[in-house]
Amino acid sequence: MNEINNSIFREYDIRGIVETELQDDVVERIASAFAAVFVRENKKKVAVAMDGRPSSDHIKDIVVRNLSKYGLHVVDIGLAPTPLMYYAVFKMNLGGGLVITASHNPSEYNGFKALVGKEAQSGSQVKEIYKIAAAGDFPAEKPGSVEKKDIIPDYLDYVTKDIKLDKKIKVVVDGGNGTGGITGVPLYKQLGAEVVDIFCDVDGTFPNHHPDPTRIENLTHLVAKVKETGADLGIGFDGDGDRIGVVDKDGNILWGDQMTIIFARDILSKNPGAKIISEVKASEVLYADIEKQGGIPIMWKTGHSLIKKKIFEENALLAGEMSGHIFFNDRWFGFDDAVYAGARLLEILSKTDQTLGGIMAGLPKVFNTPEIRVDTIEEVKFKIVSHIVEHFKKDYEVIDIDGARVKFPFGWALVRASNTQPSLVVRFEADTQAHLEEIKNIVEPVIAATKKKFEGTASPANKPLRGSAPKAG
Question: Which CATH superfamily is domain 6-150 in?
Answer without folding.
Answer: Alpha-D-Glucose-1,6-Bisphosphate, subunit A, domain 3 (3.40.120.10)
